[in-house]
Amino acid sequence: MNKGRISHKEEALSAFSRGEWKKALQSFQKYCDLEPTDLRSRLKVAELFERLGKKKEAIREYREVAEAYAGEGFLLQAISIHKMILRMDRSAEDIHERLNQLYSEKTRGTPSSCFLPHISFFSDLHEEELRSLLGRVRFRTFPQGSSLCRQGEPGDSLMVIQRGEVGVYKRLLNGKEVWIRNLGEGDCFGEFGFFLDRKRHADVRSLSECEVVEIHRNELKEIIQSHPHVKNVLQNLYEKRVMDLLLVLSPLFFPLTVSEREEVLKRFRVVTLPEAAFVFKGGDPSHCLYLIKSGNVEIFTQDRSGKRVSLGRLEPGHFFGEIGVLLNTPRMAFAQTTGPSELLEMAKEDFDALLQMFPHLQSVVKEISSKRLVRMKETLSQRRVEEAKECMV
User: Fold this and answer.
1) Which of 244, 378, 390 is nearest to 317 (CA)?
2) Fold topology of 3-105
3) What is the tens place of the pLDDT at every residue in 182-237?
């Protein structure tokens, strides 16, 4: 590729990033005149025609690019582009016919799964079921830097990455954004909205140009009816993602990498407790530490007269019980649920092993535990002052 071609493409991408559609279109057209086989750039030309309101030109370019992809055997891309045309013109009967041809083309000897990324929970669907699914899903293309979904927006579809890479980010109540993980080919997202409240629970942005298969809730429900195990696999994925999110938001585990968090998750077990249940009592041996998955836990101690002195209420994402585990001493306080709760429990032996594997955790946990001990002493000291005042009255 000579310097002139590179220059045209660089100018086009630069103008596109600034939102200068006309300038970007002119530069892309000059580049594509020199490199007509660069289908991704020609797809940009069609997209820019659409952005500029030139519907006929956009549809013409989309058609040519789609057929070029089909001619090279990239049927998924061709299907995706034809669906983009239908978005612009629902009455295009020839596009519907062409889509049917693409769905059936080469399928006599080629399974439909070849047109979809590897999706483990669809692994035992029959060929006819896969072909039916292929006809109902939506194929979408996103340029680099695009937002695939935004936290808080409506959304209950599942998205599977066909090509490219995305980043997943969580916005906290204080406005801070936390990176969760990157996802690549075959990975899916959107399971929170499917299982919870039909809303997006994170921001997902493309780190490169991406092609995504979007499966609507209705299609998933139909598949689940005939293949119940699909829901189980999705449920397990959802549970794993929930626990991973807890680690990301935890002041103890947030410094860990994705692979390190996966190692931590292996060492937790889920404990379900009713309201007002004691997790442990003062004086008990310190065998485990805990991370709250759901519910709330109150930490308290007792003064000299045996009265309850609250040290605080902990919410999902908070951990507790680490002081006795670290110091190898009996429990210094009581922990009791204030409602039905799910806790992640880790044995002392597993926690000690993690501190050996990830030495940087040691300084974090020691700092947090030291602050908690100071707050406990201050609370108890203040309580004694109040008791003394009461005696003087």
Assistant:
1) 244
2) 1.25.40
3) 998 878 898 888 787 888 989 999 998 888 888 888 888 887 787 777 777 788 88
d(CA 168, CA 152): 14
Decide: 164 and 207 in contact? Cβ < 8 Å. yes
Rounded to an integer, what distance in angstroms lies between the CA atom of residue 264 and that of residue 358? 10
H-only helix segments in 18-146: 21-34, 39-51, 55-71, 75-88, 93-104, 127-134
The closest of 310, 309, 330, 326 to 369, measured between CA atoms, is: 326
Residue in this structure with the two tokens 């070849």, named with its chain if needed: 114
What distance in Å separates the CA atoms of residue 98 and residue 78, rounded to the nearest whole number?
Answer: 10
Fold of 138-248: Jelly Rolls (2.60.120)
Q: Which is nearest to 270 in space by CA: 234, 300, 295?
A: 295
Q: What is the pTM of this model?
A: 0.59
CB 309 within 8 A of CB 297: no
Say yes or no: do domains 3-105 and 138-248 share a fold: no
Strand-pairing partners, residue 301, are: 309
Residue 238: count of CB within 10 angstroms of its CB: 16
